[in-house]
């Protein structure tokens, strides 16, 4: 017999050993009865020699479990615990095992004396005499209602998780992944087999500091829920932004056993908000300024005394502003077109990059366009037509907004065979891109964008983000800018 005792300030297990072999039969029987009565589960003994195999013994645990008194059940078959929700299959299993004189264990719904239902794990073991004849059946009844509720809750959770559009991951208390749902696989590119057993650090994008992650871990290990906007990186190197919620799961003792993380990909929402905001600002700012200039020069043209040189200057100013308005209208239409094509951003296509760049060389014969390409054969990108629009914006901006003649543009392609992405840069010798516009593109905030250059930058940004990549803008040496696209390649999916 074992019990908990305190020894030197710590709990220890004290075990008492009784010399059963030296006891007489009456003492042994008394000990067995005491042990069975003290057992934390229901114990029954039935007699198959009597009609209907009635109960001849029940312990205190059985009485506590079912609510029945001994006098109410002794002499009856144990089927009185069955009721409306008791399935026939486990009952038939027990009956067949008893007829075959074999042990059996089943789980079924039973009913207490007060009519309340509980889940019962019933184990029946035949007791044989020295001659091998079954003389009794020993039964164990264990209340597993809490376990069944947990299993049912888990089943409901899994059904909901399997159908959820949000990526869901469950880790143990050490942060080791135990479960991911299909949305997690779809968003992050890792299959369940690839993710389970690893740490969520596989999704780190490099966009957040170590202090950021330290605060996350400190929050959830303290038992609090953590919520924040987070940029993650997929298996294929794609970046995506989402609202993440991580919550600790505790047991009945209050100890943290698991963490549940739910991620909602908000990249498309963020891009949509930025698109609407930028277009609204451009329409208000650029077009309003253009109309003001046109109105002003129109008033000057009404002056009959205006000399021919001033009149011509006003006409040119009106034409310039009209061209700006057309440019804005064209860019707006282009953005609408891009947004409609973005729905196919999951489609992987082969891109003939060399052919595309040769088109630019023919389109701008007065520009010096140098292409440094290597290993571009069979390159795969998401939605090649959409990416070509972003690349076209980069080349067009570099040529049309330069202050040097001839424009000098260098296009460089690089792919590390051990990496899941490629890098394509467009370098020019122009006046450069202002720090304000660079910061706007990097942070996603709106700033004044003039002459269509800023809109073109946003087109590059939107397309790159939609395709799961990253856009950077740096200085060129000795002057100009370098626009670099970092994009996942579909070749990595075949690895």
Automatic annotation (TrEMBL):
Q: Name one Pfam family in it.
A: HATPase_c
Domain (PAC) ranges? 104-156
* Limits of the Histidine kinase domain: 282-491
**In what residue span(s) does the PAS domain sit?**
28-77, 153-199
UniProt keyword terms in alphabetical order: Chromophore, Flavoprotein, FMN, Phosphoprotein
Q: Which GO terms describe its molecular function?
A: phosphorelay sensor kinase activity
Q: Which InterPro entries match?
A: HATPase_C_sf, HATPase_dom, His_kinase_dom, HisK_dim/P_dom, HisK_dim/P_sf, PAC, PAS, PAS-assoc_C
**Name listed for the protein in its UniProt record:** PAS domain S-box protein
Species per Swiss-Prot/TrEMBL record: Natranaeroarchaeum aerophilus
């Amino acid at each position: 017999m074992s019990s908990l005792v305190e020894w030197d300030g710590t709990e220890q297990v004290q075990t008492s050993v009784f010399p059963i072999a030296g006891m007489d039969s009456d003492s042994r029987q008394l000990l067995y009865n005491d042990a069975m009565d003290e057992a934390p589960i229901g114990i029954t003994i039935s007699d198959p020699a009597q009609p209907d195999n009635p109960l001849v013994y029940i312990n205190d645990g059985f009485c506590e479990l079912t609510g029945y008194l001994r006098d109410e059940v002794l002499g009856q078959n144990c089927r009185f615990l069955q009721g409306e929700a008791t399935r026939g299959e486990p009952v038939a299993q027990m009956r067949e095992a008893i007829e075959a004189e074999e042990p059996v264990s089943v789980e079924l719904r039973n009913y207490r004396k007060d009519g309340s239902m509980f889940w019962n794990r019933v184990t029946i073991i035949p007791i044989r005499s020295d001659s091998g004849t079954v003389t009794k059946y020993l039964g164990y009844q264990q209340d597993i209602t809490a376990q069944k509720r947990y299993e049912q809750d888990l089943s409901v959770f899994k059904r909901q998780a399997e159908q959820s559009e949000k990526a869901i991951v469950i880790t143990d208390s050490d942060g080791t992944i135990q479960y991911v749902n299909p949305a997690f696989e779809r968003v992050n590119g890792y299959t369940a087999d690839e993710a389970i057993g690893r740490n969520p650090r596989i999704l780190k994008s490099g966009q957040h500091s170590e202090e950021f992650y330290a605060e996350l871990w400190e929050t959830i290990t303290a038992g609090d829920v953590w919520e924040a906007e987070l940029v993650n990186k997929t298996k294929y190197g794609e970046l995506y932004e989402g609202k993440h919620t991580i919550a600790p799961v505790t047991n009945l003792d209050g100890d943290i056993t698991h963490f549940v993380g739910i991620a909602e990909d908000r990249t498309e929402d963020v891009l949509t908000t930025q698109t609407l905001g930028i277009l609204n600002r451009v329409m208000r700012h650029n077009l309003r300024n253009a109309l003001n200039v046109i109105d002003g020069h129109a008033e000057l043209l009404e002056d009959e005394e205006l000399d021919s040189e001033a009149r011509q200057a006003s006409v040119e100013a009106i034409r310039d502003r009209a061209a700006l308005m057309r440019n804005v209208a064209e860019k707006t239409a282009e953005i609408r077109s891009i947004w409609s094509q973005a729905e196919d951003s999951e489609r992987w296509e082969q891109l003939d990059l060399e052919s595309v760049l040769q088109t630019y060389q023919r389109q701008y014969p007065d520009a010096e366009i140098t292409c440094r390409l290597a290993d571009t054969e069979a390159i795969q990108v998401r939605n090649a037509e959409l990416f070509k629009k972003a690349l076209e914006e980069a080349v067009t901006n570099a040529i049309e907004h330069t202050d040097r003649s001839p424009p000098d543009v260098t296009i460089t392609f690089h792919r590390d065979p051990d990496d899941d992405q490629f890098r394509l840069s467009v370098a020019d010798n122009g006046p450069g891109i202002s720090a304000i516009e660079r910061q706007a593109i990097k942070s996603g905030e709106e700033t004044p964008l003039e002459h269509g250059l800023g809109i073109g930058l946003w087109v590059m940004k939107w397309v790159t983000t939609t395709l799961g990549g990253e856009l950077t803008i740096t200085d060129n040496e000795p002057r100009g800018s370098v626009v670099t696209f970092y994009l996942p390649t579909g070749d990595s999916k075949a690895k």
